[in-house]
From TrEMBL:
Keywords (A to Z) from UniProt: Lyase, Pyridoxal phosphate
Cross-referenced Pfam families: PALP (PF00291)
Name of this chain's protein: Pyridoxal-phosphate dependent enzyme
InterPro entries: Ser/Thr_Dehydratase, TrpB-like_PALP, TrpB-like_PALP_sf
Residue ranges annotated for the Tryptophan synthase beta chain-like PALP domain, each copy included: 21-297
Superkingdom of origin: Bacteria
UniProt cofactor(s): pyridoxal 5'-phosphate
Acyltransferase keyword on record: no
Amino acid sequence: MRIPGLEDVIAARGHLADLAVRTPLLPFALDDGREVVLKPEILQPVGSFKIRCAGSAVMSRIARGNCSATFSTASAGNFAQGLAWACRQSGRGVTAYVPDTAATSKREALIRFGATLVDLPFADWWKMLVEDNDDPAFIHPVSDPDGLAGNATIGLEIAEDLPDAGTVLVPLGGGGLAVGVAAGLRAAGSKARVIICETGAGAPLTASLQAGHPVDVPFDSGTFITGMGGPSLLPSMWPALKEMISGTEVVPVAKVAEAVRLLAERGHMIAEGAGAASLAAAIQGSFDGPVVCVLSGGHLDTNHLIEILQGGVPRTKPPV
């Protein structure tokens, strides 16, 4: 995998000029007196950072003369939404292969953006992420080079807006956000450490770093935290993650629910589980500051939000 350099990131920024917004850095006070900084990608037009990687992937292909009438992807919802948004702006269609664990709010947004949905059992959907796909119209939601450059614009913005950032906390889905943010920081000359946030539902990077090679881990696909974690790492992402990431922080699912509640009550922002995982890690851990929490997405089912605000920890299905 080629890690995007500064020229790649600048090009991606140009491709995203009419699609994505430059999100601000917002101070947020923790109960113990510490202050962190939030990078709220939940403010993007599609509610997540995925507009950056998806938009960069689509617009880069169009710039190179790829005139596919329809693109496709395998996505739990957020990347497919970004892809559908970008394709709608350019008069193209999208077919989204989604896992049966995808949140209802994400499904509804995909339909609203005009995507065609194809449901798959989680295991079959996961295979689409780890197996090679030679369809030129298929855009991988994690490892696409143009997509990584789009994600890197987040790191570039952090470096420009907070040059002395000490730690950037990023949730781990497939790894594209983490590698992209780290690449953008590096390209801009930032010395900030990138720490990956994983949860008790499944922490494959933490286990793989401890083992020195990729390993499978138990994974609970029934938590309210969709779009992050999994039973294993994507093979294509392991070398880049090992090179670019400074460490990990594993937080309990209940602490992620707490972070969702705090963001709603004090930050007046709705984050999904993956989006709030970085704040949960900041609350639990101790890191060199200033600490930036990337809030990756805001697609949380309304019923889950209600349960969390009432002090609960929702599930999408009973534990096995």
